[in-house]
Design a protein that fits this description.
Length: 181
């Protein structure tokens, strides 16, 4: 395994902040009444003591609702809270994807991979959504798995499984990757 050298550290920080600030003006405009409104309403109800699947009907996995409810309790009841979360998720996905791709291609190729990922994802999910969060934990799980392959440390394989299990809390058909060999 190649270690995180100074260039990789600078690159990951740069990718994270450039992605975050590139998404900033895009993510803080517009409203999606159906999906975003439903998420915000259900998260607010959870903060008031209602229980998902008992008091609140939804066909989605619980992760996104409880995460949004926690953010409401920590910060404020605002659409912006979720939008900032989504910017952090996009930037983190791009950063983890860079670290994964550096294992297989050179620095320039990794930047191309990240740019394509950001370009194809920046307009899709501007509000908190279960897909990008599930993808985040899948990418983290894969990165941990790659570290396990190179270092043969059980901690990485446990972290990989943990990340894939968490991805299941956000989107069950993505989380099924836990069962792939």
């Amino acid at each position: 395994m190649t270690t995180l050298n100074k260039d990789k550290i600078v690159d990951t920080i740069l990718i994270f902040f450039l992605t975050f600030f590139f998404a900033y003006p895009i993510y803080l405009c517009g409203v999606s009444e159906l999906d975003e409104g439903s998420l915000l309403h259900i998260a607010e109800r959870i903060t008031k003591g209602e229980v998902l699947y008992r008091d609140i009907a939804t066909g989605l996995m619980p992760g996104i609702y409880y995460l949004q409810a926690i953010l409401f309790l920590v910060f404020d009841y605002s659409m912006e809270v979720g939008r900032y979360l989504q910017m952090v998720v996009l930037a983190t996905n791009a950063t983890v994807l860079y670290l994964i791709s550096r294992r297989f291609v050179n620095r320039g190729g990794s930047f191309v991979v990240v740019m394509l990922f950001v370009a194809t994802n920046i307009f899709v999910y501007r509000f908190p959504n279960y897909c990008p969060l599930s993808i985040l934990f899948i990418l983290l799980g894969f990165l941990c798995f790659l570290y396990h392959l190179s270092q043969q440390k059980n901690t990485y394989i446990l972290l990989s499984g943990f990340c894939l299990a968490i991805s299941f809390l956000f989107k069950q058909n993505f989380g099924v990757l836990v069962f792939l060999p």
